[in-house]
UniProtKB/TrEMBL annotation:
Site features described as Contributes to redox potential value, chain residue numbers: P28
Residues annotated as site: Deprotonates C-terminal active site Cys: D20, G27
Keyword Plastid found: no
GO cellular component: cytosol
SS bonds (residue pairs): C26-C29
UniProt family annotation: Belongs to the thioredoxin family.
Active-site feature positions: C26 (nucleophile), C29 (nucleophile)
Natural source organism: Solirubrum puertoriconensis
This protein's name: Thioredoxin
GO terms under biological process: cell redox homeostasis
Keywords annotated in UniProt: Disulfide bond, Electron transport, Redox-active center, Transport
UniProt cross-references to NCBIfam families, sorted A to Z: thioredoxin (TIGR01068)
Taxonomic path: Bacteria, Pseudomonadati, Bacteroidota, Cytophagia, Cytophagales
Limits of the Thioredoxin domain: 1-102
Length: 105
């Protein structure tokens, strides 16, 4: 399977895409990982979660002006609709995602 470009990934038809901009050396990013896994499992089939390593993908990080990590950006129909830097508690993240899950174009 060919590797998709970042823009192809965030234009996922029919479902929002949550992108986690992170780095392996980042402590708060490591704290965010289990929260993202839990949220992805709860919204399975309704939302896509993608992790983007800013050290390996600096162009994607620059495109969305990611200055601190972790930064989460939620894309809906290819457009950023929500973003937050730092660790986001699971209840807060679920609340944000719930407002976008199920919206169809």
């Amino acid at each position: 399977m060919a590797k998709k470009s970042f823009n192809e990934l965030i234009n996922s038809p029919g479902m929002p895409v949550l992108v986690d901009f992170y780095a392996d050396w980042c402590g708060p990013c490591k704290a965010m990982a289990p929260i993202l896994e839990q949220v992805a499992a709860q919204h399975q089939g309704k939302i896509k979660v993608i992790k983007v390593d800013v050290d390996r993908n600096p162009a994607a990080a620059q495109q969305f002006r990611v200055q601190g990590i972790p930064t989460l950006i939620l894309f809906h129909k290819g457009q950023p609709v929500w973003r937050q830097s730092g660790v986001v508690p699971e209840p807060q993240l679920n609340q944000v995602l719930s407002s976008y899950v199920g919206q169809r174009a």
